[in-house]
């Protein structure tokens, strides 16, 4: 059982991907985070945070008080969205982990040889774990990173087993747990008190029939499901506060800044709500195709590169990453497949529209009303780096004594 005065420590806590499900579960948690706007988002969400550099924060105040430990080190050095210099630095990171596991701090020396100063952040959890292990803590651990970090998690696992932990490492797909995004992540789960194993998937690429063993898995959650859209719904151009790269009106592909009034003047009205003829939309509903756009359906393109992932709205999104590419993630129109009662495309294809932070948050499985703070760019950065809360919930549930089912949509409410 969890002691009353112990908490879950969340290293590199970000905007609350791990923290949101813990809050829903009623679990006490303390997050360490450096980014100013992620800290403000956490504060608005009611999450306890210490704004600090995880690489500099002392471990002593945490010993004797930590029940579980979470870590999702920044992935920019390893991600396919960046230069991936973390892979070049991998031997140095492995050395740092090995040294920290014995209480030797060689980070300063190793850092001088790193090609990316962020690479060694993946070794930071071991500094905390070594200090906590001296007092028999924590009871359990969960860590998440991009797939290329799996060899490092295996090194952690080998060390943790010598300390008495049961450990599992592997790659999980967030879509298998109800996240509307095929986000693959390297996971480490460890426990002193139970067998560490991955949670049973609740969803699959195709729905499964009921069997003697119970109901089959549901079909992956699509973007349309997550956003409350129909297959032909279209996103709506919006205006964000501020100006320049971090804010201002959502620009159109031509680069011209258009207001909503301009969009309406050009015929981009919302489709009437079901059963209405007065032109009003359903509350919070997306804009649908206009008559001049019949025969077109919408897909999400992850970036403007030739090999960009493109997914239709009746599929989960591909892995979302933003940073300097936030403005490249766009909704694009494609001809609807020929079907009875479906109009052939008429007129030019509707213009591409850039994804909003609210839509991106929903595709990460954050609640629709999650209190993101900062301008557009700051919000996108937080969302792209976050752990999907629904995936986090399934990873955490066995360790905190919570039973989740595939029908439990509390976290998406």
From TrEMBL:
GO terms for biological process: methylation. Gene3D superfamilies: DNA Methylase, subunit A, domain 2, Vaccinia Virus protein VP39. Residues 232-294 are annotated as: Disordered. It comes from the Bacteria. Keywords: Methyltransferase, Restriction system, S-adenosyl-L-methionine, Transferase. InterPro entries: C5-Methyltransferase, C5_MeTfrase, SAM-dependent_MTases_sf. Its EC number is 2.1.1.37. The active site is at 75. Belongs to the class I-like SAM-binding methyltransferase superfamily. C5-methyltransferase family. This is DNA (cytosine-5-)-methyltransferase. It comes from Streptomyces flavotricini.
